[in-house]
Write a structure and sequence with these properties.
The structure is a homodimer of 236-residue chains. The first copy, chain A, is mainly α. The first copy, chain A, has helices at 16-31, 38-45, 49-56, 59-86, 91-107, 117-130, 133-157, 163-182, 184-190, 200-215. In chain A, helix 4 (59-86) runs antiparallel to helix 5 (91-107), helix 5 crosses helix 10 (200-215) and helix 7 crosses helix 8. The first copy, chain A, binds a DNA duplex (30 and 30 nucleotides) through residues 1, 4, 6-7, 16-17, 37-39, 47-55, 57-59.
Chain lengths: 236, 236
DNA sequence: TGATCTTTTGTACGATAGTACAAATCTCAT
DNA sequence: ATGAGATTTGTACTATCGTACAAAAGATCA
């Protein structure tokens, strides 16, 4: 037997630390940070409230650890897929592959950590909406590199589109991605059962196709106003 | 009895009820429902905590009233704009006008109630992310009609696209819309200051153009798999 | 003016929040 | 087996939560 696993992990035994992380992830992702108490998490994990304090010190620390667990693997996966996508010859296919490299890791397991990236992405969406400070800091310093790499890659595929437009459109992509994971049932409801919002594969295909088309839209003239203003007179 | 000065001319006198509503709207929209206490709201409105109970009975009641205040006017405005949009002759212009009819009221003041629809839309985004029950009920029964009318109108402009695809793409639109209002600073950051995420007019133009292009994307073959799978082998 | 209704204030209560901490329990190399 | 360190448990403390409620203050009209 090896020296000592000490504070690492023993996967062979029910690991309380992991159980707490998984429970917290699920609860935070569905109810938000503030609506979930440490006691809720402990109960869902079959643990004692004090155990959470022991492992993560504070509730913020718990959230921080969830991010730490997922950010690395997910960004790594995105980098790999992005690198592969950039090698695609055909321009149209390359753009699609780039978008896919961004979308797929968000939906599927980026690391098989506690059951998949979709839950973590949903968590990010919720934290972003709640304006959570802990999440905001981590996100900005962890995902901005990836986002820039993605934006640059798209821009290389579409050199005639201003970078500003690419930024906006990739922002829309992330919003659509988040919302698809937050309220999938709305898709089922509005399609009157014809579509399943929870079907990740379907969501990915729809999102990728729509996003590719959005990226390929003609550039916006920033100086000149829109070519016309058909109906709306927006005032405020 | 007829009381003239109370509810009608109240604009010149500090109306506590309105002040509480405005403060709650702002705080909920930026911090989420659970992170904001009744005392926070009262303090921001310059009122007494008991006053909130008096006017709205419960915290949920306060949220409910915020929705009641905005849903009607915003949906009315959307209906008007949608009706006008449907009268546009040119097909491409009509689609754009339809999208604009959906987007503009969400960004600008739908009723000039307490300073604009953007704040209320941001509130809806946050409540949606938090899975707030009160909001979920109201949203489903208040906005689904509008959403269906919008989807139908888009579908009429693009008859060759399956309704399912339209539903997905309009879902993405709402997600992008929400996210633009929730974290506008991300656009500024990622564009390195070249774009201002808080510029509503700019956001509207970008969103409308991107969405029109997304709607016009070729239909997804639902039976057949994607024409290829360039890079990704998603497994989980 | 005084009577009556509406609104605001101040305070308090029970529930629950996050977290600290000591005791109990478990793990494992020796 | 045993002792040391790691983990879990149970409990308690303080702060804050939503809300109730009585008293004070303000408004309205005979």
């Amino acid at each position: 037997m090896v020296r000592k696993p000490t504070s690492k992990e023993a996967a062979r035994k029910p690991n309380m630390r992991e159980a707490i992380l998984a429970a917290a992830e699920e609860l935070f992702a569905t109810n938000g940070f503030n609506a979930v108490s440490v006691r809720d998490i402990a109960q869902a994990a079959g643990a004692n409230p004090g155990s959470v304090t022991y492992h993560f010190k504070t509730k913020d620390g718990l959230l921080l650890e969830i991010y730490r667990r997922h950010c690395g693997p997910m960004n790594l996966r995105r980098s790999e897929l992005l690198a592969a996508a950039k090698r695609v010859r055909d321009l149209q296919d390359r753009l699609e592959a780039i978008v896919r490299a961004y979308v797929v890791p968000a939906f599927t397991s980026g690391s098989d950590l506690a059951g998949g990236g979709a839950r973590f992405t949903r968590l990010r969406a919720v934290m972003s909406a709640e304006g959570n400070e802990v999440a905001r800091k981590i996100i900005a310093q962890t995902f901005d590199d990836t986002s820039h790499a993605f934006i640059d890659a798209v821009h290389e595929s579409l050199p005639h589109i201003p970078r500003t437009d690419i930024v906006w459109r990739s922002h829309f992509l992330l919003g659509a991605l988040y919302y698809s994971l937050v309220t999938p049932e709305r898709v089922s409801r509005l399609s009157r059962g014809e579509a399943d919002g929870s079907d990740a594969a379907c969501a990915i295909e729809q999102l990728v196709q729509a996003t590719v088309a959005a990226f390929q839209a003609p550039a916006l003239d920033q100086a000149a106003p829109a070519r016309r203003r058909p109906v709306v007179g927006s005032k405020a």
